[in-house]
Each structure stands twice: as C-alpha cells, then as structure tokens.
Amino acid sequence: MFPHHREREQPIFSARAHVFQIDPTTKRNWIPASKHAVTVSFFYDATRNVYRIISVGGTKAIINCTVTPSMTFTKTSQKFGQWADSRANTVYGLGFATEQQLHQFAEKFKEVKDAARLAREKSQDKELANTALTIAAPQDLSDELQSPPVMCVNGPEDKLFRSQSADITLSSEKERIKKMLSEGSICEMNLEAELFTLQDSNSKLVAALHEANANVEQWKKQLTAYQEETERLRDQVADLEAHGPSDLLKDELTQSLEELEALLKAKDEEIHILQSKKGEYHEMEHQRDEAIHRLREMEMRNSDLERRIQNTEQNLSNSLEDRDRLDTEIQRAIEILDIKIFDLNDLRQSLVKLIDK
C-alpha cells in the first residue's frame, strides 16, 4: 500500500512557516497549530488528478487541505497570508520568515489552484462522456450485472441473523482498516515531508561541498603547474651549471627558484587551510540553523505579543467608552438632581409664606 501511495502522490513544492488556525469560537483570533516552524508542502496525486496542501507536526497532520478552484490565498501583511478551507470549516494562516518566501508560496498557490481548475474541467468533460456512454448502453447488460438473489436455507429468521452478524463483522473490519489507513497515511505524510526537507538540505550541502572541492582541485592544478615550473628551472640551473654559466645568470635563476618555492609553499598552506575549513563549514551550518530556529521563535513570540497588545488596546478602548458613557449618565443625574433641589426650594419658600399668613 505505502509504495503505491508514494508513487501516486508526490511533493512539488515545500516551504517552512508557522501554522495558525482561526479560533472557531470568536472567528477573530489566531491559534498557533505548531510550536515551531514546520514544513508546508504541495502534493500532487497523478491518479486522481488532485492537489493537496499537507503539513505534519510530529505524528499529527496540522494541515490536510484539498486545493479547489474557489480557494484564494490572501496576503494580510508582509510575512503573513491566509486561506479558507470550507471542507474543514476553518481558516489557515501561515507566517513566513521573509517576504520572498511568502511571495513564492502565494505564486505556487495560484499555479496549483489554476491546475486544479483545469483538472476539474477535464474531469467534468470525462463524466459527461461516461454518462453519454452509459445512456447509450443496452439495457440487457445492466440486467446481467445485477447480483443474484440471496438464498434462504432455514427461513426468514436464519437469513436475518446471518445478515446482521455479517453487517457487524463487516463494519468492525471497515473501522479497523480505516484506522490502519489513517495512521499509515499520517506517518507516511510525516516521512515524505521530512524526506523532502532532508533532500533540500542535502542538495544545498552537496553544492557547497562541490564548490569547496572545485576550489581545492583548482589549487592542486596550480600547485602541479608550479611544481613542473620548479623542476624545469632546476633542470635549467643544472644545465647552466654544467656548461659554466655566468654568476649573474646563476643568481637570477636561484632567486626565481626561491620565489617559486616560497609561492609553492604558500599555496600548499592555503590548500591545508581550505581542507581544515570543511569541518568549520559544517559547524557554521549547524550554528546558522540554530540561529534561524531562534529567530523564528522570536518572531512567533513577537506575533503573540502583538496580538496581546491589540487585545489590550481593544479592552482599553472599551473601558474608555464605558467611562464616557458613565460620565454622561452621572452628568444627566446631576442635572436632574439640581432641578429637583430647585423645585424643593420653591416648595419650601411657598410653605414658609403659607405659615407666615
């Protein structure tokens, strides 16, 4: 089952991003679906002609979305984008490390959506053709394909008992197979995503290693050329010494030979330095990966703090509105109280006048 599934569905694009899902209660706040940045991949099923977006965190499928022509990927900021999945009744959000990664993912989303639209149109045309063939087929063939009637051996009660027991056994077997398929698919998606990431990292390291090896080979070729030049000059010096050359020519040749030997020694040292830097390069790659990991964690914390600040500002705005409304009500009550006091004062004066009379 698994090898066939790998041949049928292949990854076509991958990117690293922080995955979020919309809060199903408020439909406003984002809920992180992963603690760290994970691999988000586009997969293509050549057998069913279907495109899917898959992301796996540990043994859990964070995203398992089938791309449809009605979907739209929207950039909400320089490093954040989102799209809605009506089948899962949710909205997915992706936070990228750079704006370029967001642009690449959006372009790939558009390409996959257009491909899904073309695939749906082809599928509809194929269904129409199959429907026409079915209508034109003879009626006798459909009658022959009908299953034969079920034979009853011991009467209706025995038939009912066997049917119910068969249904129970069949349903339990279906549930067990579904569970096995689900667990196998999740593990397989996880392995495929990790394999795609490892292949990408391996290609980058191989390219860097080839470049370093090319530099070493170049230095080796130059070293060989210098060695050949040195041997040639030595032969010339020996020939000149045999034929009794002048002291001036000897000094020039000796000086040239010493310069070439010094240059040869310097190039040899550079080759040793380059070979020693191979291990340092792998260590730098590890440090770079750790720095990127810490940077993404800081970006995630920054996003969380921004959301908290927005919530705090909203609460503060609501509190100010409540306070203004309360001040207005208090002012209105004071005005009414002043009117009541004025009326009571008039009443008091009227009562005093009546008492004086």
Q: Provide the residue-averaged pLDDT.
A: 78
Strand count, sense and barrel status of the largest sheet are: 8 strands, antiparallel
How many individual helices? 5
H-E order: HEEEEEEEEHHHH
Structural class: alpha+beta
Distance between the termini: 113 Å
What is the helix fraction of residues, given as a range? 55-70%
Number of strands: 8
Outline the structure in words.
The protein contains five helices and eight strands. The chain is elongated, with a radius of gyration of 40 Å. The protein is 69% helix and 15% strand. Helix 4 (156-242) crosses helix 5. The protein has helices at residues 2-8, 99-136, 139-144, 156-242, 247-356, and strands spanning 9-22, 30-32, 38-45, 50-57, 60-66, 74-75, 80-85, 90-95. Strands 1, 2, 3, 4, 5, 6, 7 and 8 form an eight-stranded antiparallel β-sheet that branches.
